[in-house]
Specification:
The protein has helices at residues 15-26, 41-46, 48-70, 81-106, 157-160, 177-188, 208-220, 311-326, 356-363, 377-380, 411-423, 428-432, 443-446; strands at residues 3-11, 31-34, 109-111, 115-119, 122-125, 128-137, 141-143, 155-156, 169-173, 192-197, 224-227, 231-237, 240-245, 249-254, 256-259, 263-265, 298-300, 341-343, 349-353, 367-374, 388-395, 400-407. By secondary structure, it is α/β, with parallel strands linked by helices. It folds into three domains: 3-47 and 83-142 and 264-326, FAD/NAD(P)-binding domain (3-Layer(bba) Sandwich); 151-261, FAD/NAD(P)-binding domain (3-Layer(bba) Sandwich); 347-446, Enolase-like, domain 1 (2-Layer Sandwich). Helix 1 packs parallel to helix 8 (311-326), helix 3 (48-70) packs across helix 4 (81-106) and helix 3 packs across helix 6 (177-188).
Length: 449
Amino acid sequence: MSQAQYDLVVIGAGSGGMATAQRAAAHGARVAMVESGPVGGTCIHSGCVPKKATWLAAQLAYAQDIGREYGFPVKPTKIDWGAFVERRDAFIAGIERRYRERFASAGVEIIAAEGRIVGPGRVRAGERELGARHILVATGSRPVVPDIDGADLGETSDDFFGWQAQPRRVALIGGGYISVELAGMLCALGTEVTLFAREQQLLEKFDAESADFLASRMRGERIDVRCGVDVTSLVRDGAKLTVECREGGTKAGFDRVLWAVGRAPRTRGIGLESVGVKTDGRGRIEVDDEFDTSAAHVHALGDCSTLRPLTPVAVACGRRLADRLFATGEPVPVDLGLIPSVVFGHPPLASVGLSEAQARARHGDGITIHRGRFRALRTALGGRDCESFVKLICTGDDERVIGLHMVGENTDEVLQGFAVAMRCGATKRDFDATIAVHPSTGEEVVTLV
């Protein structure tokens, strides 16, 4: 079999794989990207983009209620779910089309096939065999469905974005960010939502106090949040579904049940063992600080690796990898120690730096915490008694800011600027000396006592 030769073969066309391929091609490398599904991966097709689009629709629905409270004669209306899904899908199709055009212009060959490593420097792509100086594995992840009775009656976040009609009642199982985000969206759009979480608190990887505050806000928005509940089975009762729990009895009458209990890396069956690529106990590819695996000239990033599973992280790491492999000069470093993150809940939770528990584990008693609660003008003017929350964690005599956590309207947009400040070593004194924008959410961070 003849073998085409490439400088880089990328297995997977998600955000990390695309970013690496594009940057490598810009440096003059000959690049092939092997992908059996749509170009764009989870982020474009069943993650960030359709999620944010649905969240924006939910915010508009919520704004209708506030508008009536302000005095606008707005009649209660529900979203035309089918029309919205059609518009959202068309938008995503346009993104994928532009990506394909961009790669064609850059000279990146996209091969529509399953990719598998078959030996050092060799990748099988369908009926073709490709030779590669470097191989990047960026195959992403998939939703996990637990092994319990009736599990197949439930769906996953991938299925959610294919729903053609809005259900009246939905059960979400899981306490992570996917469950929290979908719960908020569906509730704001008029669906009755129950969230079952095995954990004692939502969002265990985030600051506990902030996560508890968000859970309280969610309950205030009529989301039935049940923590510390272990779902044991799903049962069909005619056209409806029943969720059975070990601790919490049963709850019936759901139109749909959605699993959001985690994601697993797509690393099986892609030939990692043929070149000795090591994985951890969860099947994630182990990588070092330069995104190299245990096999020479094989690299990995994104959700299939041990890196933090966030699109901007995969993109930044991919560009850094391409610069290191194919550019001259010193690549721009990637700071993975200070990653801003937002849970697009209702309201959003924004976080950068250490949680309180992490800060205490690292600095002991050498931390100070500043907290504040406030009522955002937009909702307060409408007579709504819903607070927002901000928490600043500092260390040292100069109170260097090492953690910022916010829950409330606009915190998602406010966070980015403060992340830059923290990366530059900002202290509480720097925040105090900054003139506030009044009235705003951001001013609450620089006026904390």
